[in-house]
């Protein structure tokens, strides 16, 4: 994949660039601030952008705002956000109306190389990859809607929000794929999404919880 890196820490940025190159990806640009990121995306149109949340000049949310702008203007460009913290409001906004090709990982997860590379592959392929802690924090904002779900259904929904397929969820929860499909259908029924046409019920279920 063609990747742009945006990270103000030179050490981390260069380390990620070397890792991605060793894995066969092409790092077409490596920048240290959000303004440079937007210019690089416009110039190179990468497959994936990997960006930090907090970058110069204020080190608050420049990277995440740039990610949101990229998602709005170039939805074909996948975005994987890295952060030290869970920015709950922006993490939900990042999903927007298109939950594919987006991810949000805590930086601790980057140190687990295989998990980071797996997340990058999923996002680049049009899937989603959300850190389990990010999902837990976001779902915690929606206690009332979650009351209608069983504990197992919550587990399935959490795995969906992390971007896992039904097969992957079945493997992680040690159940059959048919059991996961049954739980998913129950979730859709309880959220009133069974008769929705023209939209992904899976995406709508995740959005309803992350954005409420």
Helix fraction by DSSP (H/I, runs of at least 4):
55-70%
Order of helices and strands: EHEHEHEHEHHEHHHHHH
pLDDT < 50 runs, ≥5 residues: none
Total DSSP helices: 12
Tally of DSSP β-strands: 6
- Order of strands across the biggest sheet? 2-1-3-4-5-6
Please indicate the percent range of residues in DSSP E strands (runs of 2 or more).
5-15%
User: Radius of gyration over alpha carbons?
Assistant: 17 Å
Overall shape: elongated
State the secondary-structure class: alpha/beta
The largest sheet, given as strand count, sense and whether it forms a barrel, is: 6 strands, parallel
What is the CA-CA span between the terminal residues?
Answer: 34 Å
For the residues shown, what is the average pLDDT?
85
């Amino acid at each position: 994949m063609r990747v742009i890196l945006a990270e103000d820490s030179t050490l981390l940025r260069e380390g990620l660039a070397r890792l991605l190159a060793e894995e066969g990806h092409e790092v077409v640009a490596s920048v240290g601030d959000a303004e440079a990121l937007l210019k690089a995306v416009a110039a190179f149109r990468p497959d994936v952008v990997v960006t930090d949340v907090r970058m110069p000049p204020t080190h608050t949310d420049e990277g995440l705002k740039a990610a949101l702008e990229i998602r709005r203007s170039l939805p074909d460009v996948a975005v994987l956000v890295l952060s030290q913290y869970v920015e709950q409001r922006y993490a939900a906004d990042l999903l927007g109306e298109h939950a594919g090709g987006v991810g949000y990982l805590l930086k601790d997860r980057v140190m687990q190389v295989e998990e980071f590379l797996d997340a990058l592959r999923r996002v680049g392929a049009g899937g989603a990859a959300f850190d389990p802690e990010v999902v837990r924090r976001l779902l915690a904002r929606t206690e009332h809607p979650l009351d209608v779900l069983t504990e197992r259904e919550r587990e399935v929904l959490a795995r969906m929000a992390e971007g896992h397929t039904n097969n992957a969820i079945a493997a992680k929860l040690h159940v059959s794929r048919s059991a996961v499909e049954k739980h998913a259908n129950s979730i859709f029924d309880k959220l009133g999404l069974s008769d929705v046409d023209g939209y992904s019920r899976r995406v709508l279920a995740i959005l309803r919880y992350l954005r409420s």
